[in-house]
Specification:
alpha/beta
Amino acid sequence: MDESLSSLFPLYELPSEDEGADPETALEEPQDPGLQDVDPDTGRMYVGLAGLPRQVHQSCMAKGFDLTLMVVGESGLGKSTLVNSLFLVDLYKDRLLPSASENVTQTMSITRKTAAIEEKGIRLRLTVVDTPGFGDALDNRESRMQASDYIKEQFEAYRRDETALNRRNIHDNRVHCCLYFISPFGHGLKPLDVACMKSLQDMVNLVPVVAKADSLTKAELLAKKARILKDIASHKIKIFQFLCEDEEEFWPSDLELQNSIPFAVIGGNATMESNDKCYLARVYPWGAVNVESPANSDFSLLRRMLVTNHMQAMKDFTHHTLYENYRVKVHQRSHKPARRPIANKDQWTLPNSSLPSRRPPVPRSPSPSGVKKVNRSPSRQRPHTPQGPRVRLCPAALQALPPQRPLLHP
């Protein structure tokens, strides 16, 4: 009996009775790589959908990632130093700092720096858009709009590439996040800050940052953050939200990030070692400040938000919400019917004398004596035609009018 079963089912092995095996687990199924697992809840075999994230992971690893970051703020707030500290790069090797006299006459400009970063096999193409000269001039009405105009130009360039015939090599230079640097000196937001943030709020993920947090005490820093949040709420400025639309409450890590807005940061590129651990520090003549310590600044929270937790969320929100809103507005403007302008209104107006007037009344002879005058019924009375208002006709309609004939009086 055992030999016949083994000849029919060569993959199964029947244990002998001396081994004392359990008869329920005597027959084992063959090990199929795709169907070897069973869902304990439904009892159905797995199809293999668990391998889809691995496929997406392999595709993303092959293509790499990209991030476009814009930094906006006054000169001297440490924008370049903070970017170098966040991504451990040196993007401003050949930068020349202008003198004080040049800062007065300097106008705002847009500069782009690109760096390729690789960490544990993951490649990132980082593009930093800087705004040197912002807020340095006496008249800053134009500088507050240059940043928003640049973002619109990138949206328009992407829209043209997207609607072109060849869409294989589309260059996506849209700005995914904007770090707006707020000066630690003063009370709350300046009028320039309010105007610039309101011009950027509908086109980019706006993240407010308090620069040079080590120049304030802890009490002053908390009061500064509270005043900035009050100004943001009073002016109805939209900033990046960590709570998604389909979520009802914050994750614990996101709740910590939300409570830290605006991020109080310190930039430093010096590397120091303490207790066999390396950390970034800002060195002064009287000592050094640990940049990555949560007790000193929110640098680690900003890096976690920008790189670790919410980089893809910012890119998705930029593509599916901000860019789509811009594309819909452009589509509506292009399909809106334009009004036909009137060159000269005088030649479109006719005087009343050129219009056919109503028939003049016919003079009647007085009735002879003894003849009774018969009044017509209201239904048989001749209707009164009032003189119409002035009519506006175009020159083409004037030429199409038939020639007027003289009225013959009976």
